[in-house]
Amino acid sequence: MAAQLRAARRPGRALAALALAAAGGLLAAATVGSGPAGAAGTTLRDLAEAKGSYFGTALTQSNLNSSTITAIAGTQFDMVTPGNEMKWDTTEPSAGNFNFGPGDQIVSFAKAHSMRVRGHTLVWHSQLPNWVSSLPTAQVQAAMEKHVTTEVTHYKGQVYSWDVVNEPFNEDGTLRTDAFTNAMGSGYIADALRTAHAADPNAKLYLNDYNIEGLGAKSDAMYALVSSLKQQGVPIDGVGFESHFIVGQVPSSLKANMQRFTALGVDVAITELDDRMPVPASAANLAQQATDYAYVVNSCLAVSGCVGVSQWGVGDPDSWIPDFFSGYGAATMYDNNYQPKAAYNAVVTALGGSTASPSPSVSSSPSASPSSSPSSSSSPSSSASPSVPPTGAACKVTTQVSSWNTGLTENVTVTNTGGSAVNGWKLAFTLPGGQSVTNAWNATVSPATGQVTASNLSYNAAIPAGGSTSFGFQANHTGNAAAASGFTLNGVACAAG
Ligand code: XIL
User: Fold this and answer.
1) Quick one: pLDDT band at residue 41, thresholds 50, 70, 90?
2) Edge-to-edge strand order for the sheet containing 436-441?
3) Is 368 within 8 Å of 375 (Cβ atoms)?
4) CATH 2.60.40.290 segments of the chain
5) Which residues make Cβ contacts (< 8 Å) with residue 34, sequence separation at least 6?
6) CA–CA distance, 346 with 333 (Å, rounded to integer)
7) CA distances (Å), 276 to each of 14, 44, 223, 378, in order?
8) Which of 244 and 18 is assigned the larger pLDDT?
9) Is the pTM of this model over 0.85?
10) Sign of CA dihedral 104, 106, 109, 115
11) What is the reported pLDDT for 32?
12) What's domain 7-350's architecture?
C-alpha cells in the first residue's frame, strides 16, 4: 500500500497561483499565546464555531496516552477522526468478530471534550483484512453489508458523519479494482450508502478521496458518481476532500470544485489536511505552508456547504507523511515540539482571530474579539467561582441550520453585547414542534424537545463583554427544520442576528 500511495500521490502538479497572502501567517509562532495549545480564546475550534464551522483533527489510540497531544486536541479542535481505529482491519479482524474498543476510546475522548466524530471508514480497499479479499465473490456483498450495519449500529447517534466508501477511484477516474468492485461492480457504493443509512439515518454519509480537490479527471469521476447517486435517490450527504497537499501545489480550482459539488445538494469537507515539504523544512516552505493552509481554510469558509476542515494528525510527530512519502514531513500546523507553526497563525487569521500577543495596556472594549481581550476580569481563565450566580446580559444570537430529510444540525452563536463579562450561562430557547435533540456539543442541552436550555461546560463558562461563544446540537425533525427561536441568556431576551 505504501508504494501504491507514494506512486499515486507524488505527481508534480503545476504550481498553483495562490493569490491569498495570510496577513498573520508569518508572525513568529512564539507570539501565539501561552503553551502548546495557543492562547485561550483564540482556539481554532472557537474561531471556527463562531463562523458556523468546525476544525478537526485525526487522533489515534496511542495519541490518547500523550498529555501534550490530548491537551492540544481537546482545546484546539472540535471534531475527531479516528486515525485507524474504525477501519475494517481493527473493527472486524476476522469474520464476525467485532472489536470496537479502540474506536470507543476515541469516541469517549471526543465526548469528554465536546467534540464531534467523523467515522472513518467503512468500506476501503486498504487496511482491509485478508479474510475479506479472499472471500468468494458471491459472499462479499453479505460480508460488506454485515460489516457496515454492525459498525454503524454500534456508533449510532455518536457519529456526525461516516466516510462510507474511502478512495474508490484511480487517478484517471476509473473505478479502483478491489474486492468490492470484483464482487458487485460500481453498485457496491450505493449498496454501502443505503446500508449505512438504514443503520443510522441521522449520520451524514460521505464518499472520501484524495486528488479530487481540484478540477480534473478524478474529481470529474467523483462528480459524475455523486450526480448519479443523487438522481437515483441514494442517501449521500457529502464528499470528503482528503487534501494531502504538497507545499505550493494546492489546486487553484479548489473553491470552484467545491462549489460544483455543493450545487448537487451535498456538503463538502476538507477531511485530512496536511501540506508536506522536504525535510528539514526551509523557512520559505514553512511560509508557503502558511499561505497554503490559509488558502484552504478561506476556500472552505467561502463556500456555503463546506462544513469544516480537519487536519490529519495533531502535530508533525503524529503525521503519517514521513512513513509514506520518503524525505517529506513537517506537514501539520504544529512542529516537532508541538509549538504552533506559521500555518497555525495563518489559520487563526483566516478564521477571523488575532495572533498578536495581548498587550496589558489595551483595555477591553465591547467590540474587541474574545481573543484580543486582555482584561483579567473578562478573560475566560478567570471564570467565576460557582458561588457567584450567573447574571443576565444583553445578548445577540445567530443560528445556522443544516438539515436533511429527518435530521438537522444547528449551530448557535451567542454574543455578549453587554458591558461586563458573563460567567456561567444558560441560554433558553424554543425548538419548533417535532424537533428532538439527540446530541449536543460545547453545551449540555435539555430537555430534548419544546422549551430547552443549553448550559455552558466548564471550559466555556465565561463570555467576555463583546465576546461570543458557540455550541451546537443535532436533532431529529418531522418536517419542520426551522431554527430555534425565543432565545434568552440568563433570563434576558436576546436580539436575533
Ligand atoms: C493513514 C494513517 O494515518 C496511518 O496511520 C496508516 O498506517 C495508513 O492510513 N487516506 C486515508 C487515511 O483515508 O485513512 C490514511 O490514514 C491516510 C490517507
Assistant:
1) low
2) 436-441, 468-476, 407-416, 395-403, 495-496
3) no
4) 395-496
5) none
6) 9
7) 16, 21, 26, 39
8) 244
9) no
10) negative
11) 35
12) Alpha-Beta Barrel (3.20)
Cα(40)–Cα(46) distance, rounded to whole angstroms? 9
Distance 82 CA to ligand 1 centre (A): 10
CB 172 within 8 A of CB 210: no
Using CA atoms, how far residue 268 sits from 43, 56, 303, 359, 454, in Å, is 23, 14, 9, 39, 28
* CATH 2.60.40.290 given to domain 395-496: yes
CA separation for the pair 43, 61 (Å, rounded) = 23
- pLDDT tens-digit profile of 378-407? 333 333 333 334 556 688 999 988 877 788
pLDDT tens, residue by residue, 226-249: 999 999 999 999 999 999 999 999
Please provide the distance, in angstroms rounded to a whole number, between the alpha carbons at the two ends of the chain: 50
User: Could you tell me the distance, in angstroms and rounded to a whole number, from the CA of residue 77 to the centre of ligand 1?
Assistant: 19
Tell me the C-alpha distance between 96 and 116, whole Å.
28
Spot the catalytic one: 49, 167, 242, 410: 167
Tell me if residue 272 is catalytic: yes
What is the distance between the alpha carbons of residues 339 and 154, in angstroms, rounded to a whole number?
37
Cβ–Cβ < 8 Å for 159, 119 = yes
**Domain ranges in the chain with CATH number 3.20.20.80:** 7-350
Mapped onto helix, strand or coil, the DSSP state of residue 401 is strand
Per-residue pLDDT for 356 more than 70? no
**271 CA: nearest ligand 1 atom:** 13
Residues 43 and 76: beta-carbon distance below 8 Å: yes
Ligand 1 within 6 A of CB of 439: no
Beta carbons of 167 and 206 less than 8 angstroms apart: no
- Say how many Å lie between the CA of residue 227 and the centre of ligand 1: 27
Pair 78, 55: CB distance under 8 Å: yes
pLDDT of 10: 33
Between CA 92 and CA 148 the distance in angstroms is: 10
Tens digits of residue pLDDT in 470-483: 888 888 999 999 99
Ligand 1 atom nearest to 323, measured from its CA? 7
- Nearest in space to 25 (alpha carbons), one of 477, 487, 333: 333
Specify the amino acid at residue 421.
A
Q: Is 275 in the pocket of ligand 1 (CB under 6 A)?
A: no
> Helix, strand, or coil here: 76?
helix
